[in-house]
Amino acid sequence: MKLEPVVSKLQPQLFDENSRWFRVFLIVMFLLAALIRRDEIGAPGFAPTREYTSAIIARAFYYVGNDNIVPWRQNIAAMLKDQQPILEPPLTEYLVSLSYRILGNEEISYARYFTGIFWLIGGIFMYKLTKTLLSADAALFATAYYLFVPMGVIVSRSFQPEALMMMMYLISLYYIIVYFETRTKKHLCLATFLTGVTLFVRPLVIFALFAAFIAIAIHRKGSARRVVDSSFMIFFAISMLIPFIYYGYGILIADYMRWKVADSFRPHLFVHWEYWKGWLDSGIDVAGHLGIIIALLGFLFLRKSLARTLVISLAIGYFIFGLVFNYHIMTHSYYHIQIFPLIGICASAFLVPIASTLANVWDRYSWVIVGFVLLFGLDFSYKEVRWSLYRHVFEPPNVAKEIGEIIKHNPHVVTVAHEYGLPLAYYGEFSGTWWPEMIEEPLYRHPNAKEFSVRGRLDLLGFQPEYFVITNFGLFNRFHQDLKAYLEENCAVLAQTDSYWIFTSCEPAKTE
To answer: How far is the C-alpha of 363 from the C-alpha of 281, rounded, in Å?
Structure first.
């Protein structure tokens, strides 16, 4: 069923949605969004730890049962995968592994094509959502923000589940609106199923989606007392059932995901002003100062109650999310990306009247002006994205491969390396673990964290190390003097270059 925008029929449109120029402009906008994500596709993502965790999992899927891969590589890939923490279901990783099989080789850059496509599909539903709430004019501006906001481009170039989550989030929001516009069982089932799948993919948007459903239900029924009905029960029960099967089992029954709950929610942070400041600073960095200012102004221009209701509910959901995932909201910038639709909708409400005024003055050149603004925004986004590339330092693949050959791809290796040793282990094809790092900032340290001696840390490894590989000398010299003393006193130097030190044949540490 085709939905009409919730906007007055008497309001003049800035652009004719059915015109050839409007369609061409939309196509060009999406093509430019694809190109900016295609540029330097081989550059490392902005969160190498997450990216190489996903790359390790995708490789294991690719190697299993693959007769073209020698057995020792299959075994190391499986061991390395098993050492990674269990997080979200590895859907993107599995898709990427299929592309490896089809194309016959393994390249992390293939994953970035998937994540970029996911973000662009999300852009389509950003357009549909904003058009339904406001107008096609507003949808054009909101979608442009979503496609070109620098952090959005950066996240969608990284091999991690955020792009897929945002795609499903926007699709779910759109069909929640569709359901309340049509009130059909078909659309209720569709909205429920899509919400469940979204939360299964990555449950970070759970509060925003549920807040949106509740708020719109109150808006439509005019009373909070009438919200809890059969449709409400169906939506919540079934949409929660899908992710609960996976996450509930991991947290409540098997216990292998309970660590994530303790790691994400740290109540002691609430009494520290640094937490609130860190949340604010991180959110501003992600959304952009200008974007937030325009969005705040745009909220005042939201004339339609449904649009205001959705925006307020998404803001409430985001705030609750920040309280529950309070550690990550101040330390992980990409945890803020769910506010992009919120900002895009509000900003478009402010930009459309301005654009209409300019179009009345320069009617013949309105498309030229809009095109110029798009190119200006694209240039700004491109520079921000380029600035973010190659900023993370870790071992070059050739050095990692050299190390892997020296240690004979051993499965019992301890590393002091960049990004927790994940890129080193991935390219060097060996498994093991990284030597625990000291967290200097007390606010970031878990309140139950303990300091262990070298002997204590060795006991916690779960295996007897056969090699110690040091590549991050800054970290090694600053925080691991005790390990350095142990290695020099108890181990033999196998290799020593400007890029790495390798120790082996270690005697057990003396009991302290």
So the answer is: 40
- Alpha-carbon distance of 433 to 493, in angstroms, equals 19
CA 247/CA 259 separation, integer angstroms: 12
HEC string of 383-412 equals HHHHHHCCCCCCCCHHHHHHHHHHCCCCCC
CB-neighbour burial class of residue 113 (10 A; exposed 0-12, middle 13-18, buried 19+)? middle
Whether residue 9 lies inside any domain: the answer is no
Is the pLDDT score of 5 beyond 70? no
pLDDT, tens only, 423-482: 999 999 999 999 987 666 666 666 666 777 888 888 888 888 999 999 999 999 988 999
CA distances from 152 to 330, 332, 341, 371 (A): 18, 14, 11, 21
* Angstrom distance (rounded) from CA 139 to CA 177: 15
Hey, what's the torsion of the CAs at 102, 104, 110, 111, to 10 degrees?
70
**Largest separation between any pair of C-alpha atoms in the chain:** 84
Q: Report which DSSP code applies to 204.
A: G
pTM over 0.70: yes
The answer to whether residues 354 and 498 belong to one domain is no
First to last CA, the chain: 73
* Rg of the chain taking only CA atoms, in angstroms: 25
Q: Is residue 252 part of a domain?
A: yes
| C-beta atoms surrounding 332 within 10 Å | 14
Domain carrying residue 440: 397-504
Per-chain mean pLDDT for the chain: 89
Report the distance separating Cα 457 and Cα 462, nearest Å: 10
Amino acid identity, residue 76? I
Same domain, 282 and 166: yes
Q: Read off the pLDDT of residues 126-140 as tens digits, 9 standing for 90 and up.
A: 999 999 999 998 999
381 and 487: one domain?
Answer: no
